[in-house]
Amino acid sequence: MKIFKDKVAIVTGDGSGIGKALCELLARMDARVVLSDINKESCDRVVAEIKSKGGKAYGEQLEVTDYKVFEKHIKDAAAKMGRIDYIFNNAGIAISVEIRDLDVEDWQKVIDVDLNGVCPAGCLYRS
């Protein structure tokens, strides 16, 4: 698909799973990919894999629940890449325990990442 050729895409939560696969696919479709994950090592690994196959990518550690950090990330990416065409809010977590064993702090973290972590991208970036 040529729709992604030379487009700039930010992807959150790309150190593994769906996010990693999405970044690899975007890179194969000639997009310039900005990887964003809380785990710097896995983010760097995926960037290296994409670049080793001729793709264009760079990555940064990102805590999606920190509005100010997310804001800086988007602004830095736009400045570095010249623009942002797509933002894929893929970051998400799950805690696999029975509800009676779930701590309030764990529940709040899931809500912060899975729900509140999506808003900053849409709220902050205006092309």
How would you explain this protein's 3D organization?
Helix content is 46%, strand content 16%. It has helices at residues 17-28, 40-52, 67-81, 104-116, 119-124, and strands spanning 8-12, 32-37, 56-61, 86-88. Strand 1 (8-12), helix 1 (17-28) and strand 2 (32-37) form a beta-alpha-beta unit. The chain is globular. 31% of the residues are buried.
Task: Present the secondary structure layout.
Blueprint: E1 8-12, H1 17-28, E2 32-37, H2 40-52, E3 56-61, H3 67-81, E4 86-88, H4 104-116, H5 119-124
Parallel strand pairs: 1-2, 1-4, 2-3
The backbone outline, from C-alpha atoms, is globular
Reported CATH architecture: 3-Layer(aba) Sandwich
Task: Give the low-pLDDT segments.
Answer: none
The major beta sheet can be summarized as: 4 strands, parallel
Which fold does the CATH topology refer to?
A: Rossmann fold
At the fourth CATH level, what is the homologous superfamily?
Answer: NAD(P)-binding Rossmann-like Domain
The class by helix and strand makeup works out as alpha/beta
Alpha-carbon distance between the two ends:
23 Å
Order of helices and strands: EHEHEHEHH
Mean pLDDT: 91
Multimeric state of these chains? single chain
Helix content: 40-55%
